[in-house]
Amino acid sequence: MKRNVSELLAPAAAVLLVALVVAAAAGAWPPFVAVESGSMEPTVERGDLVVVTSTERFPWGGLVGHAEPGAPTRLGGAGDVVVFNPPDAERRPILHRIAFPVSAGEDWTDRADPALLDGDCDAIEACPAPHDGYVTYGDANGEYDQSAGIAPVIREEWISAKALVSVPNLGWFRVGVDAAIARLGLFPTAVGVGGAAAIAGGFGAMLMGRMGRGRDGPR
């Protein structure tokens, strides 16, 4: 019985260990973000899993916009891609690219790309900038977030992490779990996921056991 229990728990323990190691290296928890929209396509698509790090983590410290000289290449473009969540937002955290920093009271449209603006400063609620922060955008969107009304000027304290790399399609599990929690609740989802993990672990242990007995059999 003890052996069967340990074999069932081994896959979950291995996944947790990997997550803890990645979190320690990245300096952020959770160290992964599942992408739920297509606003960063084509480099990052819905269902991808993105590895994130603390905004100050060496050697990726600081926040750099795409318009700044020597901006690093992140996820298919120049500048940092960050996870932010304005306190008054009703949606989930957003994963978008930093365009450039702005100062309180600044008419930042003077430095903006006209193709990503819908009108001048007088027509944009987030202009002049109400506070210091960042102008952001999704690579696949046609406007800055602040021009389209998606988000206000992003304060630095609203940014929880920045993205390093993305892995195609590995985020679908997280997206599915979140959808199940929203539909069924946390406890039923936890029971279902735990049961599925136990069954998968038991099947894998049984398969490995049979393979081991086959290798030890008559020759």
Could you walk me through the main structural features you see in this protein, from its secondary elements to its overall organization?
This is S26 family signal peptidase. The chain crosses the membrane at residues 186-209. It holds the Pfam family Peptidase_S26. It comes from Halorubrum yunnanense. Keywords: Membrane, Transmembrane, Transmembrane helix. The chain has 219 residues and is an alpha+beta fold. The protein has two domains: 1-29 and 171-213, no CATH class; 31-168, Umud Fragment, subunit A (Ribbon), CATH 2.10.109. Helices cover 33% and strands 18% of the residues. The protein has helices at 2-26, 145-148, 172-184, 186-216; strands spanning 32-34, 49-53, 73-74, 77-78, 81-84, 94-102, 133-137, 159-167. The strands form two sheets. The chain has a six-stranded antiparallel beta sheet with strand order 1-2-8-5-6-7. A two-stranded antiparallel ribbon has the order 3-4. Helix 1 (2-26) packs across helix 4 (186-216) and helix 3 (172-184) crosses helix 4 (186-216). The longest helix has 31 residues, at 186-216. The chain is globular and about 45 Å long. The two termini are 31 Å apart. The model is unreliable at 1-9, 11-18, 20-27 and 189-208 (pLDDT under 50).
In short:
Its main location: membrane. 33% of the residues lie in helices and 18% in strands.
